[in-house]
Design brief:
heterodimer; A: 297 residues; alpha+beta; Uridine Diphospho-n-acetylenolpyruvylglucosamine Reductase, domain 2; Uridine Diphospho-n-acetylenolpyruvylglucosamine Reductase, domain 3; Enolase-like, domain 1; 3 domains; five-stranded antiparallel sheet; 12 helices; 23% strand; globular; B: 799 residues; Aldehyde Oxidoreductase, domain 3; Aldehyde Oxidoreductase, domain 4; seven-stranded mixed sheet; five-stranded mixed sheet; 18 helices; 30 strands; 24% helix
Chain lengths: 297, 799
Amino acid sequence: MPITAEFEYVKPKDMDEALHVFSLYREKARALAGGTDLVVHLKEGLAKPEVVVDLKGLPELGGLALNGDVLRIGALVTFSDLIESPLVKAKFPLLLESALTVASTGVRNRATVAGNICSAVPSADSAPALAVYEAVVLVRGLKGERRVPVAAWFTGPKKTALAPDEIVTAVELKLPAKKHAGCYMKLSRYEGEDLAQGGIAVLAFADNTYRVAFCALGPKPARCPKTELVLNGNKLSEKLLEKAADAILQEVSPISDIRSSKEYRLHMTRVMLGRALQAAVARLFGKGPKYGTENIA
Amino acid sequence: MDLQKIIAKPKKVAKARKADDGLEVVGKSVQRVDGWEKIKGAAKYTDDLEFGPGLLYAALVESPHAHARIRTIDTSAAEKVRGVVKVVTGRNFTHKFGLYMNDRYIFAKDVVRFVGEQVAAVVATDAKTAQRAAALVKVQYEPLPAVLDAVKAFEKDSPLVHPDLKDYTHVPWFFPKPGTNIAHWRKIRKGDLAKGFKDADLVLEDTYYVPRYAHCAIEPHSAIGLFDASGRLTMWTSSQSPFTQRHVFAETLKAFGLGHKDVRVISTYIGGGFGGKAGVTMEIIAAGLAIAVPGRPVKLLWNRAQEFYNTYQRLGCTAKIKMGVSKAGKITALDFKLHWDAGAYVEYGANVVNAAGLSASGPYKVDNISVDSMCTYTNLPPCGAYRGFGYSEFLFGLESHITRMATELGIDPVEFRKRNAIKEGDTLPYGAHMNPNGIRDAIERVEKEIKWGVKEKSKDPKKAIGKAQVCFWKSPAMPPNASSSAFLKFNEDGSLNILVSGMEIGQGLLTVMAQIASEVLSVPVAKIRVETPDTDRNPYEWQTVGSHVTWGCGNAVKRAALEARERILDLVQRVHCLDKSTLYLVDEHVKCRTKPDFALRFSDFVINGIQADDHTFKGGPIMGSGVFMPEFASAIGDPETGQGGHPNVHYTTGSAGIVLEVDRETGKMKIKKVALAVDCGKAINPDLVKGQVVGGLLQGFATVLYEDMRYDEKGRLLNPNFSDYKIPTAMDMPEEVVPIIIEVPQPDGPYGARGVGEHTMIPCAPLIANAVADALGVRIKSMPVTKEKVALAVKAAGK
């Protein structure tokens, strides 16, 4: 199926050129990294940019490295890069676990983490993990750099805090100081690649504090402060899980669509929260399932 | 990996020894003749063919309405686009076509009847230009009330999809009702239904629902047409039915001076068919466009969305079952009402309705039976053949119902099936008699394999394990005169070329045909070439559908090989004065039982003849031809009772069992084990049969667990893509699949073989539904049986 739309294609040699193109074309420019969303949208006529800006020639957008306790994920880093990184596996296994649920190997070889959060679909698999790691999105325009906490990044379905003349340069995650373990539970229709019908990420800390976030259970991925409040300071118990499940149902607002009914999403929110918390706590004590296995509900 | 090295060093294979049945090649899992070509990526599919720089591309203008009158079509803006060669509309083609019912036009003429129907096409020098120009064609529509529900289509005041139904021509075994939306109504009436229900100790009535499904062959449909200066139309198509296509092209386009001799269809390998490439769908558009731009090849390639909404879909079905059963566990009466959604055109789909109606008893002896298999036109995409041809749909309800009734009566559901299973010679619902079959053996083998009766417990307390076992049967749905034929030619080195028009659609037909000829003529399979057809060169085959080609085409090849053998023996008798009855073929030689030192190598005479004592040569090229037609079949029975004909040539039967683990909270299902026993008469190539079992089960389970077509209130398909129409991946394989081959020979099959391709997917739906009920006590009566439905049913039941 050919792309029938006309557009200019530019591949800037340096950051300055790239930022100038975006400052000139603004909404009419679209960034190309993995292209796994953009190219499909071009084919289907859903995206009609005047100019497609290929960012793959900008070395400062690459790089996956830990500086002190901060992991920097360059904007060109793909999900496969994350999955294959021993660093991510050792220090941020929850990120690995969520990355493994994104689409298929072929898509993950191209799709970038930055692209995933720029597309900002409610079902973005990387979002709950980034939320519980309290990631910061680094954006740049001609006016300079901004640091946007991931909590303020998603502003609505397919909407972000990125200005039309800016691009994302990297995502930064701070390694929590306290001992912790995580779990990402994803609801999908079968074992193959699927868009999340619901996703819940949990970080459990040794001091009985918790972080919880979701995707596909509301218009945008988000943290769950009320649920965390119920959980914090307590050891997991059947009773606590019940209370936490009641709390999270106040924070999610799923819809019925072709992928799932609201009723099933609500039911699975309870189930997934409970199972994610139990798995995370088990992992905290060196037990529980290995990261990346059996996390699809 | 260096493939060449592997070829150069073939694994040493011990010379095949004769099996107990005396067969050397048939019954052996010989390597596929098309294997290397496909593994190396060298095999050509239609879209791979090169047509040079003159090739034109077509793009369609499609209806956005489910039902509307076409007011005007303005093609002027599109025609002005540089690179556009021609814009074609329904005005150019006024003949209706169809396989069994002539109810379609190449382009919608005055009325569009489904969202996505072709209204016009742009032919241009490249695909992008064609698509851009197609967007410039302006069509004015007057929307009409749409019929989107098959059951509502049956109501008296429903709008009519085809008001002129009375004028449509169709095969004599269809019974449309003009003035309604009823396109076909197959009735079966046998025995005394009222008495049957009176004799019953338990009567259960319920309704089961099956949605539409898509085939999702990985290779999309494609067709290239060329109408050349000699007045002939050549079509390269991705097709299961080259000859049927040739016939439909010739009939539909005869106004342009085409006869059958002028139409040539060339079919390459195809990347999956499953019934979706049977008959004619988009190929007729490419044929029409070729006529419109004579002298240049035109290519039409479907995109994935078109693959969903403008080929055939599997028919949706609402099945009402009322069954009576005695305490002794016998079915005393069955009243089965199948209401099918056939879509906007039923030219192929109504035959699915017919086939299901004839066989809705399932593989059971039911003396008192009434079946109404009826389809209505709707303003949804047209439906047609899909692996299983209606049997998956009625088996979902029937086999669910049987397990429910047996359980309610306290009879073991497997024992119940054994008591009712059909036997050779039993009277079928339409009055003919059942063929030899191994269904009891199949039931017992599966029962043992899944340890039926032994309750299993999951290690995970959140999960429960359920078991189920069901039976299945299926017959090829084909016209009574559907024929196969074959040519077979020897070459100088004693090798063979076999020409057939049965299609290689992944099932291994070419290999199996080579095996059959090899068995008769003692030529090794490696020295036999069988390829996909060109209707100019290859002899007739009706279609590669209905799991009938191993049987039909195999019979033709066997006859061709036997004819060549006769010619060889006649020649040797004539030249060497040896009695024919003492001669036999072995290891590519003619040998003689009474003269042990006589051995004549094929390569010494099969082309250039045998030199006689006077130095002259006798004989000449050895060839054989074979034809097979099921001369006992007849489609004509009483329209009100279905009695009197012999519409089905034979049934393949079998049984399947499952061990299913279900998560009580999430509803997620994991198939721990599935065993399927099928009586294929004779497995000519056991590995290929096992391949059918594995593939069929995977495809079948996908339709039960997650595949589902969804439409909005305007008749638009919501999921014409793999984002939201899920097909199985390698990760969705059951943990263990056990194929079991049963061989009760089919008397008229080649070496006893009968069909097996479709049968392996049709028991899947009731397997899952019954296993879920066994595990958790909830009964799902609508497909798909998704984890969502299971979890919510468990929640609702408070279990």
